[in-house]
Amino acid sequence: MNFLALVIPCYNEAERFRKEDFSDFLKGRANVFLYFVNDGSTDQTGVVLQDFRQLHPGQVKVLNLSVNVGKAEAVRQGILEALRSRQIAVVGYFDADLSTPLQEGLRLMVHMDQSSAVMAFGSRIKRLGIRLDRHPFRHYLGRIFATEASLLLDLPVYDTQCGAKVFRAEAAREIFDRPFLSRWFFDVEIFFRLKQRFGRARTEQLVIEVPLNEWVEQGGSRVKPLDFLRAPFELLRIWLAYRAAKPAAEGR
Questions:
Q1: Which of 4, 35, 48, 146 has most Cβ atoms within 10 angstroms of its Cβ?
Q2: Nearest-angstrom CA–CA distance, 30 and 197
Q3: Any idea of the CA torsion for 22, 56, 121, 113, to the nearest 10 degrees?
Q4: Across the strands, what pairs with 63?
């Protein structure tokens, strides 16, 4: 039985923390752990998380950061904390608003276990028979960003920014071993780091993109439309930095 740890970065989530949904997910799943990272919140998020930890002391951990460091570093710190436990075989991260239900994390793990993949991530693809609710404006901005990211990565990725990703522990240790350049678009850097480690051809074999069965936009996103307008410049900065780094040998 694989042990799964999901990291949940939280910034000022006290008013919309969905305690019942998190509790329901943990019931009957002794192999699942939740690591909440309180990213320097200025409201009562820390109190809410500690209260929740007391309800599930064996499965819930809380990491409090003294200052706000942004999603990228909060996720990284949470991943590294989870990997301190050697029983964790799979680690990942999900958004605190649960726009992606936590059950999707189990689906991602199953897809990864059925292959030799080192990473599986959700993809928000509208299709028949699933529930996917997203504001059209954000959807089209997201598609522009995703297309740019895929071109710069030279990988056929449909949705780099979906906040639902899981990794095998050994791969996560390498991917998250150093800080990211971007506070918000670090997901793109993850793919660059995979290419550096495995080369392009092997990365296409070792990473699985899984269409989600449910994704519902919750509102209150920390990423604003203006951030998407800045995104091309941020992507260029990321691309230049990783292009300068020494790549892995193709097929390694």
A1: 35
A2: 33
A3: -130
A4: 37
Residue 238 identity (one-letter amino acid): I
* Cβ-contact 125, 205 below 8 angstroms: no
Concatenated DSSP letters of 43-100: SSHHHHHHHHHHHSTTTEEEEEESS---HHHHHHHHHHHHTTSTTEEEEEEE-TT-SS
Which residues have a Cβ under 8 Å from the Cβ of 200 and sit 6 or more positions away?
154, 155, 250
Residue 129 is which amino acid?
Answer: G
Per-residue pLDDT of the chain (252 residues; tens, 9 = 90+): 689 999 999 999 999 999 999 999 999 999 999 999 999 999 999 999 999 999 999 999 999 999 999 999 999 999 999 999 989 999 999 999 999 999 999 999 999 999 889 999 999 998 899 898 888 877 778 888 889 999 999 999 999 999 999 999 999 999 999 999 998 899 999 999 999 999 999 999 999 999 999 999 987 656 665 666 788 899 999 999 999 876 655 544
Tokens, residue 75 = 């996720």
CA distance 220 to 218: 7
Radius of gyration for the chain, computed over Cα atoms and rounded to the nearest angstrom:
17
